[in-house]
Amino acid sequence: MKFFRTSIAALAFCLMVVMPAAADTLWDYQALNADGTGSHPMVNAPAVDSNEEIIESNKVTVEGVALSGMNDLWSGSVMYAMFIQDETSDRGGMEIWAGSFWWPSGGWMPAQYAPFNAGDRVRVTGFLQDHNGKVFINDRHTNVLDICPVVEVIGHPGLPNPELIPSLADCNHFDVSRKNGGERYQTRFTMLHGVEITAGQWTGDSSITISDATGNGTLYIPPMVNLSGTPMPMGKFSVVGIYDQEDGGSGAPTVYHNEYRMILRNAADIAASLAACREVRSRSVGDQIAVANKIVSRIYDGRFFVQDIDRAGGVEVISDRLVSPGDVVSIMGSVVLSDGSKAISAKYVASSRNSAAPVLVNGKTLRGQGGLDVFGLLVRCVGRIGNNLGGSLYQFTTDDGGSITLNSGGYNVPAAGAQVTVTAVASGSASAPVLLLGGEKDIVALVP
Questions:
Q1: Residue 352 binned pLDDT confidence (cut-offs 50, 70, 90)
Q2: What CATH number is associated with residue 17?
Q3: What pLDDT is attached to residue 353?
């Protein structure tokens, strides 16, 4: 009976250890103690038993999307460094790391460290360990391959959308609950908007101080990032990168509450910050720009329109990214021409839910006679359907008797002569305004 009870106890212990490894998420594995170390029971779990046998039940298996390629940040001949993010939620990420110092004799990279590119989906099995304020999977500083992580590339969904960090004050401090602070964003694809460089050298393998109205932070440029031909940003800019922590510990007792940083993946992930949508019109075609916290008003095939929350202006965005009317989005991309007007060709789009309200306008405003620039904005006006001009275009007579163009986008339009209320994006220009419908509900016939 004693052996039986001992066996049951051993089985119960194994279940306690193994079950979390199968069910827990990247976010769960990053749970914290008050000192900044990992609190999950698998963190720092022993890799071998007293007989030097590998404890397989102490390994975990995680999946995520690689946020950079194998040689994008550091040379693959020096270290195997990967950041992955949970693609199925808005939380959780992890670093995977192995150093060439502990590769097998001869310095060859083990085959179980699969080559990877940014946007690859990977599956990683290995042991969790604390490192400089974060939990990661590493090689435990050994060349015993059964202890080292095993990495498989299992797909290529592409990079996720970055998450906008509202300000430096939101990410430059420690919060054990992870409701805010650096731990919330750690090891995730993120965007900072409206920061500027206040100290440091614009060169590889350097840490630069960045600031905004709320405080200071760090932008780290890894040694493999090519800055050739890219001058240091002057004035306010936006940056997309991997948020990280490298805190060696401080104080007595030792805590890991500091040294958060944004890792720059490449020079193309930096763009000039614009405050208002209409500022896009003053930029040159090809300029790299970014806007933040803009509301999606309407969606069309391969493009959508956004506007300032205060409805001061709007702009067209060329993108196939999935967004919905009412989403609040932050966009980084380049200035392009679309039907003769300046627009943003989006590289990154980060979104969250909100609502967009149209501006009530009359015919004079649409023709630029009211002193209000509404182009790119969602507007609402009353008028009468005129002749079918072909190609989904209709003549539209506004309240003051003037004539402009209505683009139905292929949606049904009431018969000529019908008085309607139209909710649409004001496109074109004051000399040739066009109301651009986004759906059948955007036009409503008025009952006489």
A1: low
A2: 2.40.50.140
A3: 54
- d(CA 174, CA 171) in angstroms, rounded, equals 8
Identity (one letter) of the amino acid at 203? Answer: T
Q: How many CB atoms lie within 10 A of CB 379?
A: 26
Task: Write out pLDDT tens, residues 363-418.
Answer: 888 988 877 888 898 888 999 999 999 999 999 999 888 999 999 988 889 999 99
Identify the bridge partners of residue 81 per DSSP, sorted by sequence position: 97
Which structural domain, as residue segments, surrounds residue 30? 2-155
Same domain? For 244 and 193 the reply is: yes
Contact 325, 317 (CB under 8 A): no
Number of domains in the chain: 4
The H or E element that residue 4 is part of is helix 2-23
| pLDDT higher than 60, residue 11 | no
Q: Does one domain contain both 147 and 212?
A: no
> Taking 80 as the threshold, does the pLDDT of residue 351 lie above it?
no
Whether residues 13 and 119 fall in one domain: yes
What per-residue string of b and e applies to 153-177 under the rule 16 or more CB within 10 Å gives b?
eeeeeebbbbbbbebbbbbbebeee
Q: Amino acid letter at 341?
A: S
**Residues forming a β-bridge with 276:** none
Instruction: State whether 75 and 122 are in the same domain.
Output: yes
- On the question of pLDDT at 299 being above 50, the answer is yes
Q: What percent of the chain has pLDDT over 70?
A: 93
Same domain for 341 and 434: no
